[in-house]
Predict the structure.
Amino acid sequence: MWRLIATRLAAFVPTVLATSLVLFVTVNVVPGSAAKAALGIDATAQAIARFEHEQGLDRPLHVQYLDWLGKAVRGDFGTSFQNHLPVGPELVSRLPVTLELAILAFLIANAIAVPLGALAAYHHQQRLDSVISVFATVLGAVPSFWLATVLILILALTVKVLPAGGYVPFAENPAKNVSLFIMPALSLGLVSSALLLRVMRAKMIEVLSSDYIHTALAKGAAPNVVIWRHALQNALITFLTVGAVEFGWLFGGVVIIEDIFLLPGVGQLVLVGIINRDYPVLLASALTVTVVVLAANMVVDLVAAVLDPRQVHARSRA
Amino acid sequence: MSAEARGHRRQDRPPVLGIAGLTIEFATRRGAARVVDDVTLDVWPQEIVGLIGESGSGKTMTALAVLGLLPRTARITTGDIRLSGASLLGLPEAQLRTIRGRQIAMIPQNPMSALNPVLRVGAQVGEPYVLHRGADWKTALTQAVRRLADVHLPLPDERASEYPHQFSGGMQQRAMTAMAIALDPPLLVADEPTTALDVTIQAQILRLLREIRDEHHTSMLFITHDLAVVAEMCDWVYVMYAGRILEQGSVERIFARPGHPYTQALLRATPTGEAAQAELISIPGSIPSPVDLPRGCRFVDRCPYRFKHCDEEPPLLTVEADHTARCWLVETHG
């Protein structure tokens, strides 16, 4: 197990480095001028040259990258071209918002997908399976921003049980914090559950047709014992891999939902960074998303290893 | 009729397993596929009864029907399955569950895939105690260790806490056997229990199964395609082909004087003893499709002796005492 953790960590660092390089190049190659965005379209050529010199943008790309990287590993992500505030602290304050949103949405998605997927698989090609599959198709076809709007319309404006938007830190007022996160998490989680449900169903159908399930039935196990004791863990091992990708999508794809619900998260920062060609902001926030997604994958790999005794033994023997 | 023939084995109780006129059909796009057709078969106390046939003969479907685990698309159209005299057909699923694992247990073809990869062997072997006796897991584990010792697994204490992938194939089959005999069921259904194992391991498992029959007084329906295994294991044998029983009798009689051309061909195609020296002869053609069965004898298309009568299916004709075959050419011997 420790060996597994060590190998995953060892792979983590080069992956982050490679990603940072790709991000850096992409940001700089994309057309558009940071100076024009910062100074306005009326800026003179002289002003633009001065800005680029001040920010070091006139240096060769590899020099810029190494300079940025050297500071980044020490926690200095530079200052915003726009508001001249340091990017690092800004990110640190925004990260918990997005993490909370992504985790809540992920929990909601799984709470729907796992039991319904398992149920549909157990009733494969029967009526309940069709009903659940139609439900998943409908959920998958709904855009999350539309769902968000409908939720606000109903829960915030008509029934008035939830606030329409805004943010309060958890430490300050836990109840208020959670109530503010319910609708954004639902908008993301419901949509995301559609894909997870289908994956769970397919995986579960495969597991339920395997010999060891037949063994369990031949022992006289009831359906709930067969599903939860004998099938679920096996299905989860591969399901989790897809889950990690989905979590990455949730974390990286929260931009619109954060905007709708006025949540000051990382997604908003990415959006602002792109619009303003604010390279330090864009780089740092995009890299944060990458690191979180990679970390999620790593956690999932470790959980999968715990669920699957074959992996642990195979690796510790190797 | 086999009951009469096996009169000497008959006791004052019904057979452990009595299958009478069992017919199983699948609905397919090309019509009903009759995979088991009017099969009658008995397993008497402490007998090991062989059900032999090639793939697609319906032997596994027969076994699944006994366990009440036929696929959803299959339907038993006629016949009855009785366990110690009591019919299993028509029992509600909840009641069948109390029988599976306690009255009837299964030993599978491939122990590797039949063991759950994420559960410890001890928990899997002990589970019947939890399911049927309401035991807690601690008790179940103690019982599992005892059963693993019964099947001669070395270091059963330590092995019980290992996972299936840490077992060799032979050990896995021993574990499956321990699981099957956990609650001392009167009937074991073994579906090709040695097919997936190395030859040397096969012999060990067969010896173990015989020992279980002798010491636990278990009866066994032994499904196989391997005549050599039948010769070694079984007291009585049913030869199945395309859903039909073509021949039945005591093992000695069938091997000494096979009555049906199919059984004869099977014997010629099996490398046993002296026959191994001679050239093996495979049976030309293949088993007919269950949606497109021949009108008369099931074996007619592949039979070297067919003649005009074969368009009409023969009944099981007596070859000799304890031996019948479904062929017009059977000559009755004293």
User: Anything to note?
Assistant: Confidence is low (pLDDT under 50) at residues 1-5 of chain B. The first helix of chain B runs from residue 2 to 5.
